[in-house]
What does this fold into?
Amino acid sequence: MERHFFKELENLKMTILNMAALTQRALESATTAYLERDEQLGQTVIDGDKKINALELEVDQYTLKLLALEQPMAKDLRMILGTAKISNELERIADQAVNISERTQFLSKYPPLNSIPAMEQLIDVSLSMYKKAVSCFVNEDVKAAYEVRKMDDRADQYTLEVLQTLVEYMVKNTPATERRRLNTRRSIQTIIISRCLERVCDLSTNIGEHVAFITQGINIKHQGIDAEL
It folds into this structure.
């Protein structure tokens, strides 16, 4: 029975890692589609979301099976419960990639806005936070989980800068009615993309917090940002 349990637990971990890899690909493709105004690439993200959703359901099935039949204890129990939560965070990150791709479909049909450095920085930090959060899980690295939390302040700052830049642009926009409407719509869609990226950062932070729970049984969610291990 014990050998069977650990085999099932390993299958659960592999399913999560597969889900994490697909989610990373979706996030990278969505941000590339936005930067390169690539509608076709964005559509592949939208089309691929069903597979990630299916893997979340698969994780749920593994989780219920292990809890019902094996009655795990201590770290094994935390692994199962924490993995189920991480699966949910991954699915939500993939949804944000879909949201970015859908906005990109609209933006790609019109001339581009001026370059927004803070948006590019936000994309970089969101991808970095996601990869580090997944690495936390793979390596059971609680220290890295705290590092992810600290990176979130930068993400919030870049999101604010994107908002400020686009609000100023809309205020200074041409008085021509139709053009103003289009520029306002483009600006709003871009602001939504920045909020999606900010949400990716928040969800990546959550993954790190779940890893701390799995590995050490501690809840760092409400600890101060500079809390020590």
